[in-house]
Predict the 3D structure of the following.
Amino acid sequence: MGKWLHKSFILLISAVFLVGPAWLSAVDLKTATAIDQEIEKNRAEIIKIRRFLHMNPELSNREFETSKLVANKLTALGLQVKTGVAMTGVVGLLTGALPGPTVAIRADMDALPVEEQNTFPYKSLNPGVMHACGHDFHTSIALGTAMVLSNFKDKIPGKIKFIFQPAEEGAPPGEEGGADLMIRQGVLVDPPVRAIFGLHVWPDLRVGQAGYAPGYTMASSDSFTLTIKGKSAHGARPQEGIDAIVIATEVISNLQNISSRLVDPTEALVISIGKIQGGVRSNIIADKVVMEGTVRTLNPELRDKIPEIIEKIVAGICQGYGASYNLDYERQLPPVYNHPEFVKAVLPWLTQSLGEANVVEVKPQLVSEDFAFYATRIPAFYFFLGVKSPGQATTAPLHSPNFNPDEKAITIGIKAMCHLVLNALEQQASLKTQAETTSSN
Ligand code: NI
């Protein structure tokens, strides 16, 4: 994220969101109770939808049935629906009776290539594919929010855009997809989106809780493939070859020194080599090693420096041994940014909906999320929704074949989203009037 964007963010946010205590919450007790009642009325259907999605998981850019279900439901609710956005994406627009700006909720829809090990009756029917990252929850929560809020149209000052996004886990090789493609296809314009909300189910937090981190909350994620080319020789005559395996070990241990010796050690930085391949036989010097790694940071400036540092280390070591190399570095996702000023505005809304004790600040996470693409363009708030059952010490982690989030979290997510968007719209609508008054003075 460039400096310009930081400045424009601060201006936008301070102009739009920093307001007096009178604006702390637009959802009065009566509306809050009505939201709870609507959630209760729709609970059974929402759980049914979630279980259907869980039984029928679809991989990235192949969310055909999921997308159909979402589009049909949104159409039935009377929303304006666009399909085929970024392949299988769906966008629903709920137009309130009162004039005002547009805010968005984003849910990802794709599943993972994981063979489910759970044994409950609604386990995956798709061999080798599973909603192991809870995107069935995210989709159900956004749909549920649309179901509830479509009953409040006459009170809504503005529009709510429901963004159902494909391929958060990454498009298949050779394809485009996900948040970046949705943005390029205009999801944040027409009407322009002022602020966006997203969540992820979180097994470290118990049901009822929500966690957030102000600032950079999830990491950037880039990947690289490094090929080291040496020279083959008899294993007993290494002086006649160039040992790509020995060079690879030097490279790997030196890459680990980057975070402690070459950059500010207080900055979060992870470089992991997850795959390495090389050699043909125990007594032959390997002429080639290919390794693949991932790089995570919580700082865009640090992120920009890493490719050059890696290249220098690799070049230096290879030169020393007379080897050559090829480094293919691919920038993928920026870090997810919750602007601290926006977080300040949003927190009272979240605590009002879930209770003060249930909203906890958590550490930033070095996993990544393509929600980051929205958050580098407009004010965004991304939070973690607790899914650990009460009394359970631990739950299976995200991406595990045993992942089994507590379904009670779904209605809690819906409630939080309803409060967040209603408050954001109400505040922005009121402030627009204020700003207009000020500018005419
Ligand atoms: Ni996920």
Notes: The chain has two domains: 3-218+335-440, 220-333. The pocket of nickel (II) ion is lined by residues 133, 135, 168, 200 (CB under 6 Å). The domain at 3-218+335-440 is CATH 3.40.630.10 (Aminopeptidase).
